[in-house]
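Late entry, written up from scratch paper. The run itself happened at the end of the previous shift, but nothing got recorded in the book at the time, so transcribing now.
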Amino acid sequence: MAQIRLTLQNRITSLTILSSVIFISAFTFIQLNNQINSINRFNSYQANLASIIVKNNIEAAITQVEPQDILNYMQNSLKQLSDSEVIKKAVIFDPEGKIVASTEPQFIGENVRYKDLQNFEKLQNLAKEDKWFVPQIDKLNKTIEIFVGIRRETDKSIGYVTKLSFPLANIQEALLNVYKPVVITIVIVILANLLFGYLLSRTVIGPIKILNEVTKKIADGELGIRTMINTNDELQELGSTFNYMTEQLVKMKERAENANPLTKLPGNIVIHEMVEEKIRNKQKFMVIYCDLDNFKAFNDKHGIAQGDEAIKLTAELFKEAIKNCGNPDDFVGHEGGDDFILLTTSDKATAIAEHITKEFDKRIRSLYTQEELNDGYIIAHARDGSTRKFPIMTISLAGVSNEARSITSYGEVTNIAAEIKKKAKDIEGSVFVVDRRKG
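Output as recorded:
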């Protein structure tokens, strides 16, 4: 079964929607909870106020009317209070639990619940402490119930109990009250998400898509392509770094194409660039050119494979020399054949050259037979076709520097090096000759 691939934009959109749903749910819950608490506080206030009014009215009836008219007066009082919306639902019952007055007349004469009747005794005991009501919450019917004790005028005992019922906050009612702010909040969140998505697409996802497309084209070999990201932030910096990386890839490709296939060292183009860069930046440098003495005779005698080994040995010595004796940014190039170039500074040149000449004389012997080493020469054909003796290979190094004289081009460097190499080759053995001229 293929795995579903989510894009970055899809993931961000999903997270935005999820966070919006969580935010709206939390906001709705808070609003609903506050609304319910507000309704409950209002109902509690209304219940307390109604309790006082009912108590005063009923107790006034007991003292002001004839005993045979008390029940009618209480019924009329409840009806008036209900019509004026002071109370919602109320009953008055006597010590036996019989309902003697009610906002719903059909219940008169019936008995209240045993649970309600128990409050009669509670109020009787509380009356001694000058307390006259008992509040309760009926979770089943979702009501606030307040039992108010009605005292007799004669002995101040509880003669009747009024049960007042007020509804608790209704969820549906609360939802209606928070409907408008929740809808407004949803609209604001949706608009904010649309704006956020638009800005996100322009400032983040868009540039990432551009980088992705450019990366694919570069992978296909289009190294001339560049990104154009103008966000004035880290993404623009990333785009600039990407362009710089592409430029370096172009240079690496050019170097790789120009590198010598045998030694893998940079060739003529890179050598030229490196020297010209030093001249352009007015940096002091020392260029060491190499030439292997009697290499052609050795190559003719022992074959191309052994000649290649001599070339590779020389390349390793040059790299080893700058690693052990040179600067971190020193450079080694291979022009071809037995011609090498090393770019360093004058203060490191002597140590580098001594390492090369000493190690070359030691290691080159491994490419000769023991008989040739004992003789100190090999017999091979000269350039004119004659046969003669050629000594064991040595290495001639020519140094050209701009420390004492002005050098303005790579061509000038090679011309001076050609003169110095000629002088070096005229000296027997492995040597390092430096151009000391000042003009």
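Residues 8-64 form the longest helix (57 residues).
(Scratch paper discarded after transcription.)
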